[in-house]
Amino acid sequence: MRPLPPLLCALLLLGVLPSGGADSAVGMALIPAGTYEPAFRGENDPKTVPVQAFLLDVTPVTNQEYLEFVRANPKWSRSQIKPIFAGAQYLSHWAGDHDLGSANPTAPVTHVSWFAARAYAQWQGKRLPTTAEWEYAANASPTRPDGANDPDFMVSLRRWYSTPNPKELPSIRLNPPNYYGVHDLHGLVWEWVSDFNTAMITGDSRGDTGLDRQLFCGGAADGATDRDNFPSFMRFGFRSSLKAVYTVHNLGFRCARDIDPEL
Amino acid sequence: MKISSIIPAILLLVAVASPRADETAKAKPAPCCPTDGPATEAGDALSNASIYHFDTTWTNDLAQPVQLASFRGKPVAVAMFFAQCDYACPVLVHDLRKIEQALPESARGKVHFLLVTFDVERDTPEVLARYRTASSLGSNYTLLRGSSDDVLELAALLGVKYKQNSRGMFDHSNMITLLDAEGEIVSQQIGLNRDPGPSALVVENLITPTASTTAGN
Predict the structure, then answer these.
(1) φ and ψ of B106, to 5 deg
(2) Residues A169-183: tens digit of each pLDDT
(3) In terms of CA atoms, which chain A residue is nearest residue B51?
């Protein structure tokens, strides 16, 4: 894949695109169209999934950014949110409705449910990325779109995923961006996706219909690079354990946008 | 990338402060036309645990707008399905009727049955109307369609997993969720072809006491 010309990169980062709401494309990177190989797929599911070009936030949403959302939308404040939309630990790391307390303003916001993440995205005129979009963007290393073929990157990944979270979540952007200019898809927090509830439908539950009783490891499962991509399997496992109302101390999110929104 | 191209972009990224601070939450459409349910704007505030706080507008098989809160006042049994589902969903619908039949006759009119489709593209009101006729569903059944976003959110609220597969059909969990008169989730019946007894008992106990306590009523 040829790198984007520098001027186009700058224009895209400036949000000068033929789409609505140019200001909301600031801080987003263009992820070009491509294909993604799911780590898990059903027997009858295709091995590769096409991903259309889309825009992705270059960093996860921070505590400070989420605070602005809460100020503008009081029903999403900690004291007013309905329990069906977030569990009891919603924003529990903050000191109050509009008070971050000792929480790092530029750390990714966590303790937010899927409903809350979606509401923030909608407020921004954006949406959550799909699993395919997120994983496709996350496949990239700092130097190549196919990070699985970047041995140094794979070593870093395994180290990050086997290191416990620090007590205080660090700020965004401390690590270099990946090939697409996106930071922190690895090594910071888990992130919500719009279709998390499709992950790992295993058919273990006898109540499930039409689901493959066996899940096949996707892609070239006998290829060494795929076997090494343990973090991808971890993410799938994590997503399958989630319910939309859950809030987790190391689960945040970032937003995505279609390039030509239909709205 | 040349430095001369990067610097303007970086400066702009740094200079732009924050999202639009004056944006408010997207306005929801005003509640419309409750069906035959009791008034929703009456004195009592809706319970915090009610899923009716999800106040989007759906469309029924008569192409009328419907909000979930219009069902307030009666317990509701809700399931998600799609019309082209050729095995599981007919069994699921049958399970709903088994619950209805397992209730004492005096109670059957005091519960509502709700079917919401996954298939936002194909299950138009006309398709839903044909499904109603083909399945002989009475006026105590409501069939709803909505946007894919709203279907996703309702499924998330109910804990229903679903995914469109490579054949365009939907893989999904089979679940009947029982809501009380306030729209709170009380229990769920999971799987197909289940004994309706336990769910019927739950529904009976959700119906207002005046209706169900006298034997042979």
Answers:
(1) -70, -20
(2) 999 999 999 999 999
(3) A84
